[in-house]
Amino acid sequence: MTRDDLFKTNASIIRDIFTEVARTSPEAISCVVTNPVNSTVPVASEALRLGGAFNATRLFGVTTLDLVRASTFIAHALGGVHDPKQFKVPVIGGHSGGTIIPLYSQSEPKVDLGAEELSKVIHRVQFGGDEIVQSKQGAGSATTCMAYAGFRFIKALLTARSGTPVVEEAYIYLPGVPGGEQIAAKLGVDYFAVKVVLGATGAAKALDFGTLSGNEQRLLDIGLKDVKINIQAGQAFMAA
């Protein structure tokens, strides 16, 4: 099943869920893991907006799985002698294929890998979900790793709610989050995954991703085209 197929199935589900969220829990902090996240988050936003309950600081598309893959796959590429948890690799963009942009130039600790090998790792981060679908012969997709990624993001939210700010990447409506309007203007899109400072009431600030390498800029230029199409699909569904 392609992400387009998923959208046809899941868009109406997300619309109905968030119509009820707006009616019954308008102050809720909501996390969307339902694919295609690039499109379902705009659907959720519009459903909340129609219900008079949209607050961009309380709606997140969870892209943590991409962060987990970025750190895991680079650890594997370096010979498996490093614990993947040692690596902090920013991942911006969206949550599908070429819209996933790992910023290995900003990795902590620094990554020392040749261009060809690094390109293979990036491709694996972008399309790692396909490996799982193929290994399950089409009978399933990423489940346990998605569960872990979801747990990690929810844990970060709860930590922030308790008074300790946490920085995590998420796919958000940029113009509605402090610091995000400038990023949206630079990119030409309103939804994008960036580092977000999580606070007691949700997203406290969106953080600019800074200077990219030449290859990362190329990936960004490519990914932005698809992100725009994905956003428009979600908005068009809600406008129909």
UniProtKB/TrEMBL annotation:
Biological processes, Gene Ontology terms: malate metabolic process; tricarboxylic acid cycle
Reaction(s) the record says it catalyses: (S)-malate + NAD(+) = oxaloacetate + NADH + H(+)
Domain annotation Lactate/malate dehydrogenase C-terminal: ranges: 63-237
The UniProt record lists the keyword NAD: yes
InterPro entries: Lactate/malate_DH_C, Lactate/malate_DH_N, Lactate_DH/Glyco_Ohase_4_C, Malate_DH_AS, NAD(P)-bd_dom_sf
Record keyword rRNA-binding present: no
Keywords attached to this entry: NAD, Oxidoreductase, Tricarboxylic acid cycle
GO MF, any single term: L-malate dehydrogenase (NAD+) activity
PANTHER family on file: MALATE AND LACTATE DEHYDROGENASE, MALATE DEHYDROGENASE, MITOCHONDRIAL
UniProt family annotation: Belongs to the LDH/MDH superfamily. MDH type 1 family.
Source lineage: Eukaryota, Fungi, Dikarya, Ascomycota, Pezizomycotina
GO cellular component labels: cytosol
Broad enzyme group: oxidoreductase
Protein name per UniProt: Malate dehydrogenase
The protein's assembly and partners: Homodimer.
Catalytic activity, EC: 1.1.1.37
Residue ranges annotated for the Lactate/malate dehydrogenase N-terminal domain, each copy included: 1-61
